[in-house]
């Protein structure tokens, strides 16, 4: 059962369409797994709909309707797509990766931890993390906000336990050392809106190249 | 359940008459709900019958609102005009994805217009959640649809009674395509205050809904 959900701020920004790409993707992935947040998102979309309905009108050119009818005339609305069988990754993540977990191109980052940076716009970064059971993610703090969504396994840090579907929202004041629970590898999707601050000179020099 | 759809109909009937009232059972006084139901029925006619008259009626109501929404988001009038047409063409193409038990037509169109706005203002790409699997029954559940439309009405009523300052904050969050940080800069209010005021506004809306 999912215990850690998205905040109202994140869902509002996602509904309004103003989040960085990396955050949108993480939100879309969580909503794919979480009926609660899907319902909250629907209520925020409804607010957008109520605003659209009541915010006023701007007249279109007299030819607008006939021009649009000409575009659709003779075509039929597309049928509903068939649901795709799902692996570990919900559709938005699978689309970005280009496949499921077996398509991920992992890179070791030390201590048995592997990561894969996913291509998104540069104002925030998105990566997959694979942490062997019992292993800690390298100690790090944040300058901005970091969202971590668990896809498989679980981790604990000083704040709580996070299992499949849970999202941890860490702000700049949280210095934490997440540890994967023993058992299966913990697979997480993490989005940050500022580079991580790793300890030591070399990681910092490499950060621009590793895009983290 | 939708046999009524097979009856002859005209497009420009007044709200509260004909199809909508027949299907969702709201009779008498003209209410926002009648409008919602009428729009939902028009959408179903587009989805099932590729009904261009139904499409034209939806166009008449929503295209000027989509254009206003896009202009309010900073799009020039000519761009907003083109994109309003794009959004309506998308409505046609994706009509089968509309489910009146999940969203009002206005809400569904908002989501299409929002995505178009992201394109034209070159904002960050926004992935969609995986769609819920569609049930085996091709027809929407009229009871769920009615409840959803009533909730939507209540949300609209709550929005109408919101103090102007709170409504403006919500409008900026949704329409102006600004992050919270930009809102704070514009209004000179600290970020924390803005965020808590937006949350307060949403909470108030949600309480009215529940």
Secondary structure elements and pairings:
The complex is a heterodimer of chains A (212) and B (210).
Chain A: H1 8-16, H2 21-33, H3 35-54, H4 64-72, H5 91-97, E1 107-110, E2 113-118, E3 125-131, E4 140-142, E5 146-152, E6 155-156, E7 161-162, E8 167-170, E9 179-180, E10 186-192, E11 196-198, H6 201-210
Antiparallel strand pairs in A: 1-2, 2-3, 3-10, 4-11, 5-8, 5-10, 6-7, 6-9
Helix pairs in contact in A: 1-3, 2-3
Chain B: H1 18-24, H2 32-49, H3 52-72, H4 77-93, H5 105-120, H6 142-161, H7 164-175, H8 180-187, H9 191-209
Helix pairs in contact in B: 1-2, 2-3, 2-6, 3-4, 3-5, 4-5, 6-9, 7-9
Spans where pLDDT lies below 50 across 5 or more residues of chain A: 196-212
Number of strands of chain B: 0
Q: Please tally the helical runs of chain B, counting DSSP H or I stretches of 4 or more residues.
A: 9
Helical proportion of chain B, percent range: 55-70%
Q: In this structure, how is the largest beta sheet of chain B organized?
A: none
Reading the helices and strands of chain A in chain order gives HHHHHEEEEEEEEEEEH
Structural class by secondary-structure content of chain B: mainly alpha
Strand/helix succession of chain B = HHHHHHHHH
Description:
The complex is a heterodimer of chains A (212) and B (210). Chain A contains six helices and eleven strands. With 212 residues, chain A is α+β, with helices and mostly antiparallel strands. In chain A, strands 1-2-3-10-5-8 form a six-stranded antiparallel sheet, with helices on one face. A three-stranded antiparallel sheet of chain A has the order 7-6-9, with no helix packed on it. In chain A, strands 4-11 form a two-stranded antiparallel ribbon. The radius of gyration of chain A is 20 Å and the shape is elongated. Chain B is mainly alpha-helical and 210 residues long. The N terminus of chain B is likely disordered. The chains are: A alpha+beta (212), B mainly alpha (210). The interface between A and B is large, with 65 and 78 residues.
């Amino acid at each position: 059962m999912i215990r850690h959900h998205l905040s109202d701020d994140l869902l509002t920004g996602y509904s309004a369409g103003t989040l960085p790409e990396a955050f949108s993707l993480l939100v879309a992935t969580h909503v794919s797994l979480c009926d609660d947040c899907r319902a909250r998102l629907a209520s925020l979309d409804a607010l957008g709909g109520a605003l659209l309905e009541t915010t006023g009108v701007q007249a279109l050119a007299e030819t607008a309707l006939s021009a649009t009818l000409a575009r659709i005339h003779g075509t039929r609305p597309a049928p509903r797509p068939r649901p795709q069988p799902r692996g570990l990754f919900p559709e938005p993540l699978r689309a970005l990766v280009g496949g499921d977990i077996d398509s991920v191109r992992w890179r070791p980052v030390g201590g048995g931890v592997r990561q894969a940076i996913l291509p998104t716009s540069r104002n925030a970064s998105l990566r997959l993390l694979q942490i062997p059971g019992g292993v800690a993610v390298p100690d790090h703090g944040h300058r901005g906000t970091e969202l971590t969504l668990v896809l498989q396994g679980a981790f604990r840090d000083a704040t709580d336990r996070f299992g499949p579907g849970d999202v941890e929202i860490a702000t700049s004041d949280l210095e934490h050392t997440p540890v994967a629970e023993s058992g299966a590898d913990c697979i997480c999707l993490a989005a940050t809106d500022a580079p991580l601050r790793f300890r030591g000179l070399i990681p910092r020099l490499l950060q621009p190249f590793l895009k983290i | 359940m939708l046999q009524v759809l097979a009856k002859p109909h005209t497009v420009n009937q007044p709200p509260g008459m004909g199809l909508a009232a027949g299907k969702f059972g709201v009779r008498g006084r003209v209410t926002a709900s009648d409008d919602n139901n009428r729009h939902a029925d028009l959408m179903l006619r587009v989805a099932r019958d590729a009904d261009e008259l139904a499409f034209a009626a939806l166009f008449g109501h929503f295209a000027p609102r989509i254009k206003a929404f896009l202009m309010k988001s900073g799009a020039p009038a000519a761009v907003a005009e083109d994109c309003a047409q794009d959004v309506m063409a998308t409505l046609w193409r994706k009509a089968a994805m509309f489910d009146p038990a999940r969203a009002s037509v206005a809400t569904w169109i908002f989501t299409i217009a929002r995505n178009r706005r992201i394109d034209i203002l070159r904002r960050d790409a926004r992935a969609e959640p995986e769609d819920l699997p569609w049930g085996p029954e091709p027809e929407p559940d009229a009871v769920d649809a009615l409840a959803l439309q009533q909730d939507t009405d209540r949300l609209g009523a709550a929005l109408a009674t919101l103090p102007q300052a709170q409504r403006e904050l919500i409008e900026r969050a949704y329409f102006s395509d600004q992050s919270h940080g930009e809102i704070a800069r514009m209004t000179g209010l600290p970020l924390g205050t803005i965020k808590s005021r937006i949350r307060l506004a949403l909470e108030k809306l949600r309480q009215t809904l529940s």
